[in-house]
Amino acid sequence: MAESFKKFIDSNIHKNVNEILPGFSQLLHNNYIPHLGAKRIIRQVFEGVAKSMSEEDKVHLKKAEELVNTVVETSTRALPKVRDTMFFPNPQCENKLIKYLDMAKNEMLVCVFTITNNNLRDALIRAHNRHVKVQIISDDECMKQQGSDIQFLRDNGIPTETDTNPDAHMHNKFVVIDKEIVITGSFNWTIAAVNSNQENLLAIHDPEICEEYIEYFEGLWRNFRPVEVLREKAAVCIQRHYRGSQVRNRN
Which ranges carry the PLD phosphodiesterase domain (predicted)? Predict the structure, then answer.
């Protein structure tokens, strides 16, 4: 979509507005423009104009672009539907976070340093069971610690990956829900974070910001490794399914 809009700008940049409008309306009708977001549109328009300008004029053009972005962001941007804060220790805030997770309808991208809180784990299982596309990224060392839920989540069919660098941590703590709501802060998904630690979370409805988080998440996903189902757990699952099928056959 971005490439199509860029080609449109490059081929029409020297035409007057009336000549451009029909093509612009067609892109709008095809949903290219809303998908890109205002900032990307402005960037591509200014890049098209800059191609025929001197280096000195490009400096002035860059300042003009910054001014236009400021005006757009402050005057035309809709207020987010969700603007929420959660501070810990506070079990009520844990319940609030669970409610957000239970709101997911289509997709949930979880990128959290460590997950040992079974209440939050179960919310992810519920989302997976109602056919929400759930993906989880966590730290490779934390998933090996006692109480980690990462293997459990993977064994239950949720795609899960960890980082590959033993000398560094995957230290993010955020979740993106349905490409619209991002929840981020210092909060790890642990019981101690709920009941003991001083932590915070910010939840905000902002599809443009979510787009940046999604792009970042997908970059990590491409470079990290999948969590494998442990052989002994896989054997237990196979035996359980086999015994269940035998019972059904007898009945």
Answer: 166-193
**Residue 178: active-site member:** yes
d(CA 181, CA 241): 38
- Catalytic entry in 171, 179, 206, 241: 171
N- to C-terminal Cα distance for the chain? 56
Domain ranges of the chain: 2-75, 83-239
d(CA 232, CA 237): 9
173 noted as active-site residue = yes
Mean pLDDT of the chain: 82
- Strands 199-205 and 83-88, how do they pair? antiparallel
Give CATH for domain 83-239.
Answer: 3.30.870.10
Q: Which of 6, 39, 169, 178 is catalytic?
A: 178
| pLDDT > 50? residue 44 | yes
Active site residue 171: yes
Torsion of CA 131, 114, 112, 138, to 10 degrees: -80
Question: Which member of 149, 173, 205, 206 is catalytic?
Answer: 173
Question: How long is the chain?
Answer: 251
Cβ–Cβ under 8 Å, residues 148 and 115: yes
Return the sign of the alpha-carbon dihedral for residues 62, 64, 67, 69.
Answer: negative
